[in-house]
Automatic annotation (TrEMBL):
Keywords: Kinase, Transferase. The keyword Kinase applies. This is hydroxymethylpyrimidine kinase. The lineage of its organism: Bacteria, Pseudomonadati, Pseudomonadota, Gammaproteobacteria, Pseudomonadales. One of its GO terms (molecular function) is phosphomethylpyrimidine kinase activity. Its EC number is 2.7.1.49.
Amino acid sequence: MNTLAPNRPVVLCLSGHDPSGGAGLQADIEALLAQHCHAAPTVTALTVQDTADVSDFRVLDREWVLAQANKVISDLPVSAVKLGMLGSVEMVDTVLELMQRLPDTPLVCDPVLRAGGGGSLGKDDVGYAMRERLFPVSTIATPNLPEARILAELPAGSADDCAERLLVHIDHLLITGGHGDEAEIHNRLYTRSGERHDFTCPRLPGSYHGSGCTLASALAGRLALGEGLVSAVRSALDYTWRTLRDAEQPGQGQYVPRRLPLDFGA
């Protein structure tokens, strides 16, 4: 073993597999590498999707997911946990069981309910189960505004309206913008105590596949490194914006964030 190089913090990722490589576990791995963290990817679901949209998905058997994650937890010192696509209420139960083995470990919940193209990535009751049972054990959730509206059951609610309802269940909530036609993107961090932080960035042209995964993973990585929550949110948002600025269009659908520099590993 190389005793000269310190170990990178380990982030346990429970997410779906995207065969296009734009979102899901590949996004998690790349974003965490960019934060100088080690990703431990546990597959929760398989999807049929491309850079345009998802057409089908299959949630893995609960015992398989538990077996994957428990092996990691028994072997590696997990410094943070990042949740992506869960896809079923049973998978929510699985995460809750796993978190009993990881008390006081930062948990970043990216409530993935729909793909960027609009296709569903979970049954209707998954959002309710996440809000009622996962949010209370999460450090922070990172929904975009459409996801926040689903979780808050406010189809036309503002970010502030959604936060008011959701902060009953969680201490910190980052609601991301970019789904309107505004010239600047407004991202807002809410706390149950009433504290609020606004982060703005210029709107970029095009639409992007995997931006939410990128943000949540980068945030989990910053927390795993010991960065304070507000600073970690700022770092993750800045990093994500840069990946979108440098995005590429490998297929016929959305742009994919460039999470690693072209000379990475050279």
